[in-house]
Amino acid sequence: MQLPTASTNASEQEFVELRLAQVPLRQTVELVRIDLPPEQAEPLLERGVLPGCRICPVRSSPSGDPIISIDGSLLAFRKETAACLCVRLITQFRDAG
Amino acid sequence: MAEQRAVLVGARVASGAALQEAPSPLVALIGPPNSGKTTLFNQLTGLRQKVANYPGVTVEKKVGTVALPDGGELDLVDLPGVHGFSARTLDERVTRDVLEGRVEGIRAPDALVLIVDSTRLESQLMLVEPVLELDLPTLLVLNMCDELEQRGGRVDDSHLAERLGVKVARTSARSGAGVDLVREFLATEVAVAEPPGPVQPRTLSNIPRGVALPMVDAFKQRRARVSEVVAGAGFRSPDPSGFSERLDHVFLHRIWGPLVFLAVVVLVFESIFTWAVPIMDGVELVVGASGNWLTATLPDTWFRSLLVDGVWAGVGSVVIFLPQILVLFLFLGVLEDSGYMARAAVIADRMMYRVGLQGRAFLPLLSGYACAVPAILAARTVEDERDRLATIFVTPFMTCSARLPVYALLIAAFIPDEPLLGPILGKRAAMLLGLYGLGIVAAIGTAFLLKRTLLKAEPTAFLMELPPYRVPTLRSLGLRLVDRSGVFLKRVGKVIFTVSIVLWTLTQFPRTELGPPPIDDSALASIGHLIEPVIAPLGFDWKIGVGLVTSLAAREVIVGTLGTIYGVEAAGDESFELQDALTDALTPASAIGLLIFFAFALQCMSTVAVMRRETAGWKWPALQFMYMLLLAYAGAFIAVRVF
Predict the structure, then answer these.
(1) A82 to chain B: nearest residue by CA?
(2) Partners of residue B259 in chain A, C-beta under 8 Å
(3) Interchain proximity A39–B120, CB inside 8 Å
(4) What CATH number has the domain bearing residue B84?
């Protein structure tokens, strides 16, 4: 897997896009895109799940659905939704900045 | 905006007389779910609150009176918790309509109190912008400030106030710290303000007015502004709560999670059916004793008969359920206030998803075991409209506590008290469990059917915020119980009261020379004979028929009705027992048919009424009523032939 470069100027296309469902626990990622129709995306947007925000899967529910940490809150949804969230890894460099 | 508010403040100090003439100002309390909104509402109003329904609107609103430091008062309305104003859910629609002043029976609010959880300030402040667009005096309440500081976070409220152009108060609504600041705001900024002129048309939405932006961009821009303000105010988010993490480690564990979930459900049941019973027996004793006292004290007139045989017997039969309902609500309150309910919804979601519902439906369905009415109201948190409709459609299949006395009476009369599986399970308990199971099967089957036909839709997103665990406060639990028991007694009491009087009256006419007619010649019997042909195939006679008709008001009424009918028939017979009378009137097969009828039929006016309000029309309650009646009739018809 090609890791994203440290350049903050790089356009989004240069990053390897992952689905949130593929991200291991405790790995903070940045949300790139929500591949859901507007009426399904709106509840996510209202709770701060916006492109550009940082999310971190912290736990799995007993049935394997993700529980993420965002802005200090915990949010649970289904893995079907997680499969529609495009994310990219954040490098150490970007994290520091 | 700030100048305008200053004008409002300094406008004039209304004289005491003027204050009394004008209606006291109305302040709306809004905020996201789990921000401590209701706790603050309770702190401000105490017991001076009432739950009201307005005709024609689907709103159960809580309005309370706030006593101000200067002796004045104003009204505070507690709006449902919302994340935004998309009007996607019923709660969001209600909140928006009240704020826009479009709800009949409640005027547009004169000021706003916006409460947010300061431990997650950034996402919570997304509500600020649409609320500020309303241009009303607004107080921003940063709640849970104690928790923020304990966990190493901080925020500069004066900077926040300056940037947003509103007053800001730091509170901890749970402990009551800072609540005086809210009162002070209400006293200085609202109570003395100019009485509002004609209300300007207001509109609320997630997307700023007059901006044609794609939704995602509108949200991103707002978020950027919020982030800037929050960063400017030196906000530092708190460290994660180690306590909550440790609890989640168990409650959401792959193996322990479902086990704890199961234990909680069992505990709730155990509490309703075991712990509440002694209290119910106590209430029954009091009702019985007071009835006897009335009989002994009052002269033997038609009034005594009406009061004792009609009202006391009828209303008393319902009041007996109050302890059970209170115990259930106490448990639900603890589960909700502690934060466990959100975890339970997450665990239940997969299961519910398979039958076409979702995790948020878990709370309403569990509440349905006490009473379908509050359960249907609780379903408002189900975000997707189709999911909500499916949930409230199947809720009445949950075996509510009103079915219990019917089950208890018929099972005791017809099922022998014999062991079925050795000492573990008796035949009677098995029958009762079977009836509970029947309700669940019907609910699952119906939900499955609905989501494949009438409510067919793409699977919707399930989103659940998991608040940090907190110890519920006694105050909040107590207020919840007072509130719920009031609603229950008012709603159900009214119906039973009316039915009891009507029924009693029908047994008293046409009068004979000796007074009331024999029950078989009464007006009630004539009505009963009308429906006899319909129920004859089920093996029911006209007396059971009358019971079925009166139980349309509320299921447990049939017990009182049969008591009245057979009681009047056996007048003077000291050894009269309703159970014996029933054993003579029904065959065992018909009795099982009757039990199954009660498991399925929607005999509850309160449920029908609340369904009409919650679906804004007669279509769904009518469909639900007919569907459940058909299922009940078919079930009883088959049972009579099989057993």
Answers:
(1) B461
(2) none
(3) no
(4) 3.40.50.300
d(CA B524, CA B510): 10
**Could you read off the pLDDT of B316-353 as tens digits, one per residue?**
766 777 787 788 778 888 888 898 989 999 999 988 88
Smallest Cβ–Cβ distance between A40 and the set B219, B461, B466 belongs to B461
The answer on pLDDT for B391 being more than 90 is yes
Structure tokens at B639: 């049972």
For chain A, count helices (H), then strands (E).
3, 6
pLDDT tens digits for B58-75?
Answer: 445 688 888 888 888 889
Determine the distance in angstroms separating the CA of B82 from the nearest CA of chain A, rounded to an integer.
Answer: 9
Residues B481 and B493: their CA atoms lie apart, in Å, by 17
- pLDDT for A75 equals 93
Q: pLDDT by residue (tens digit) across B545-565?
A: 888 888 887 787 788 778 777
- How many domains does chain A fold into? 1
Nearest CB neighbour to A72, from listed B215, B237, B383:
B237
Q: What is the DSSP string of B117-148?
A: EGGGHHHHGGGHHHHHTT-S-EEEEEE-HHHH
Range of the domain at B577: 487-642
As a residue count, chain A comes to 97
Q: What is the average pLDDT value for chain B, to the nearest integer?
A: 82
pLDDT class of B503 with cuts at 50, 70, 90: confident
d(CA B559, nearest CA chain A) in Å: 44
Domain that holds residue A64: 12-96
Place B597 in a pLDDT band, splitting at 50, 70 and 90. Answer: very high
Q: Which long-range contacts (CB under 8 A, 24 or more apart) does B519-522 make?
A: B519/B565, B519/B568, B519/B569, B520/B569
Partners of residue A40 in chain B, C-beta under 8 Å: 460-461
Put simply, the answer to whether B123 touches A65 (Cβ < 8 Å) is no
ipTM value: 0.82
On the CB side of B502, CA atoms within 13 Å amount to 12
Tokens representing B308 are 């004792």
| Predicted pLDDT of residue B213 | 58
> Is the CB of residue B346 less than 8 Å from the CB of residue A65?
yes
Report percent pLDDT > 70 for chain B. Answer: 87
- Which pLDDT score is estimated for B203? 65
In this structure, is residue B178 part of a structural domain? yes
| DSSP conformation letters of A46-88 | HTT--TT-EEEEEEE-TTS-EEEEETTEEEEE-HHHHTTEEEE
Domain count, chain B: 2
In a domain, B517, yes or no: yes
For residue A26, the chain B residues in CB contact (below 8 A) are: none
CATH code of the domain covering residue A23: 2.30.30.90
Inter-chain CB proximity B216 and A80 less than 8 Å: no
Tell me the per-residue pLDDT of B84-111, one tens digit each, with 9 for 90 and over. 887 777 788 888 888 888 877 788 888 9
Establish if A4 belongs to a structural domain: no
Chain A residue whose CA is closest to B358: A78
Interface test with B, best of A33, A35, A45 (most B CBs within 10 A): A45
Contacts of B412 (CB under 8 A, 6+ apart): B428, B579
Tell me the residues of B at the A interface, defined by beta carbons under 8 Å apart.
83-84, 86, 88, 119-120, 122-123, 126, 206, 215-216, 219-220, 223, 237-238, 240, 248, 252-255, 257-258, 342, 346-347, 349-350, 353, 383, 459-467
In a domain, residue A28? The reply is: yes
Residue A26 CB contacts under 8 Å (≥ 6 apart), including other chains: A56, A57, A58
Q: How far apart are alpha carbons B500 and B492 in whole angstroms?
A: 12
Give one word for B144, left, alpha or beta, with left for phi > 0 and alpha for psi -120 to 50: left
Is residue A27 included in any domain, yes or no? yes
Contact B123 A73 (CB under 8 A): yes
Given a cut of 50, is residue A5 above it in pLDDT?
no
The answer to the question of residue A46 being in a domain is yes
